[in-house]
Write a structure and sequence with these properties.
about 110 residues, mainly alpha
Length: about 110
């Protein structure tokens, strides 16, 4: 009986150690304000070639008017939809990831300087 009780206590102790949450939180603050999704998307498409870039620019010329009356989310979805015309499904997923990370923000900011 003592062995069963000791084993139960030991298993409870191990379960509590395993169930302990382990997480890492990182934060990065840039010296510049947030850059527009449209410019970051243009940088992403521009890496694939000048021809795709200019076709994308021709396609999104009128988006600046559209943005003024719409929410940020619907504007983001429209940009993704327009970019998908020039990208594969994998590239669209990579674009979404890049926009979430704001990885093209430094390039946009540098070109604005």
């Amino acid at each position: 009986m003592k062995k069963v009780l000791l084993l139960s206590l030991l298993l409870l102790g191990i379960h509590q150690v395993i169930a302990a949450p382990k997480g890492v939180t990182a934060s990065l603050k840039a010296k510049w304000s947030m850059t527009p999704f449209l410019l970051e998307t243009s940088e992403f498409i521009g890496e694939d070639g000048d021809e795709k870039f200019w076709h994308f620019v021709d396609t999104v010329k009128e988006l600046t008017v559209y943005k003024q009356g719409e929410s940020v989310r619907s504007y983001y979805n429209l940009i993704i939809k327009k970019a998908a015309q020039f990208l594969t499904n994998l590239q669209v997923n990579l674009l979404r990831f890049a926009l979430a990370l704001r990885s093209y923000s430094p390039a946009v900011h540098a070109s604005q300087q």
